[in-house]
Amino acid sequence: MAAGARITDAVAHFRNRGNFRSAVKLVRAREPERLRWRAAVSGLTLDAGKMRGGDRMRVEEPLRELVLDLSDIILQREVVLDARLHRVDLDRGEILPRWTFGDLRRLSFLAQTDLTLLQRYVALPRNYDAPIDTAAVVLAGRAFANVFRQRAQRIWLSVPDQDGPGPKHDHHRFMLARADQEVESGRRWGALSKTLAIKPQ
């Protein structure tokens, strides 16, 4: 690969050939940043999530060391969360904050989110003092926020322009009120996931 190639292209070149050692070496050599570099690392964690045994360790462990050394806290956190989407755990308690189930209950109450929805997708402990899987809860909260926002957008698109010359119907007003509720639910889940991802001062 040419020395000036974009890191996403260069890493994809090595990944496609199964040369993960060179791909990992390349991301270690390039300056970490939140766009292409992060995307390149995410591609490698996607590959690692499909591997087993020593092959997986040879990709996962160097990436984990690299992430632990990052000075950009936001980039560090997002790379860890990207990896968890691919079933790779680059954080063993050093990066994401540790919360208990009691903490989650309290924060969920403040954000006015429904934990029964979360329990359908994430295993939560019964003991209030037991730790939660922070990464899984944050990712689920972000997913819920996106789903609620998308629902609101679909409703808005299905309702005629309320400022237009056409007749106004009660069911359109009900639909718009429902869209507002969906937006608010998305905002609340987004706020909860953001709070959980940031270490308290």
Structure description:
The protein is mainly alpha-helical. The protein has two domains: 7-85, no CATH class; 101-197, no CATH class. It is 66% helix and 0% strand. It is built from nine helices and no strands. α3 runs parallel beside α5 and α5 (73-85) crosses α8. The model has no long low-confidence stretch (mean pLDDT 91).
Question: What features would you highlight for this structure?
Answer:
mainly alpha, 9 helices, 201 residues, 2 domains
What's this entry about, in short?
This protein has 201 residues and is an all-alpha fold. The chain has helices at 7-16, 20-29, 36-49, 53-68, 73-85, 101-111, 115-119, 134-158, 170-197. The model has no long low-confidence stretch (mean pLDDT 91).
Q: Proportion of β residues?
A: under 5%
**Ends: how far apart?**
44 Å
Give me the secondary-structure category: mainly alpha
> Tell me, what's the shape?
globular
Largest sheet properties = none
State the domain count.
Answer: 2
The residue-averaged pLDDT reads: 91
Number of H- or I-type helical stretches: 9
Low-pLDDT residue spans: none
Q: Sketch the topology as an H/E string, one letter per element.
A: HHHHHHHHH
How large, in whole angstroms, is the Cα Rg? 21 Å
Helix content: 55-70%
- What is the tally of beta strands? 0
